[in-house]
Amino acid sequence: MNEIIKIVIPGNAIVKKNSKKTSLYRKDKRSGRIIPLSKPVTYYSKQYNEWSKGAVQACAIAKTKHPEIIFPITSRIILKMLFFFNKNMRIDLSNLYEGVQDVITGNCHSVSIPNSIYKILEDDSVRFIMGHDGSRFLLDYKNPHTEIYLYPYIL
């Protein structure tokens, strides 16, 4: 089965939920005082933000290589992700899916560019992603990266 599109994201993938922090305060830039917020603010680690910027760039490049495809893709697909890490770690594979799926569906809040530039897939619900067949955690000590393959869903 031939893939619809392939995306390669450099670096070790970062687990999104493990990098999330919530704060009820912020530091005033001028006075340095701590100020309470009316609503909690969620932010992500520097590592996740850097990884997601690279992921957004990889998606934008992949879109330019496929002018024959109308983006975002609205058909049902099988999503295969190969996570190549440069060290052997204890990671929950299903947690790695969340960050990748958020990027390919245009839900990356760590970048300030419009999602129309990098959005690959309409949504990450089961209406569009029918499975994660063949996804794996692998080792590549010299070139950590994530390979994303979108395949047509065929019954």
What can you see in these coordinates?
The protein is of the alpha/beta class. The protein has one domain (5-19, 46-152): 2-Layer Sandwich (60s Ribosomal Protein L30, Chain: A), CATH 3.30.1330. The protein contains 2 helices and 7 strands, in the order E-E-E-H-E-H-E-E-E. The protein has helices spanning 46-64, 93-104, and strands spanning 5-10, 20-27, 34-44, 77-85, 129-131, 136-139, 145-152. The strands form 2 sheets. Strands 1, 4, 5, 6 and 7 form a 5-stranded mixed beta sheet that branches. Strand 4, helix 2 (93-104) and strand 5 (129-131) form a beta-alpha-beta unit. Helix 1 (46-64) packs across helix 2 (93-104). The chain starts with a strand and ends with a strand.
Can you give the helix content as a percent range?
Answer: 10-25%
Elements, N to C (H/E): EEEHEHEEE
Q: What is the β-strand count?
A: 7
Strand content: 25-35%
The name CATH uses for the topology is 60s Ribosomal Protein L30, Chain: A
Rg value: 17 Å
Distance N to C terminus: 13 Å
CATH class: Alpha Beta
Provide mean pLDDT, rounded. 90
Shape: globular
Count of separate structural domains: 1
| Reported CATH architecture | 2-Layer Sandwich
Q: What is the count of helical runs?
A: 2
Set out the fold topology.
Elements: E1 5-10, E2 20-27, E3 34-44, H1 46-64, E4 77-85, H2 93-104, E5 129-131, E6 136-139, E7 145-152
Short description:
Helices cover 20% and strands 32% of the residues. By secondary structure, the chain is an alpha/beta fold. It has a single domain (5-19, 46-152), classed as 60s Ribosomal Protein L30, Chain: A.
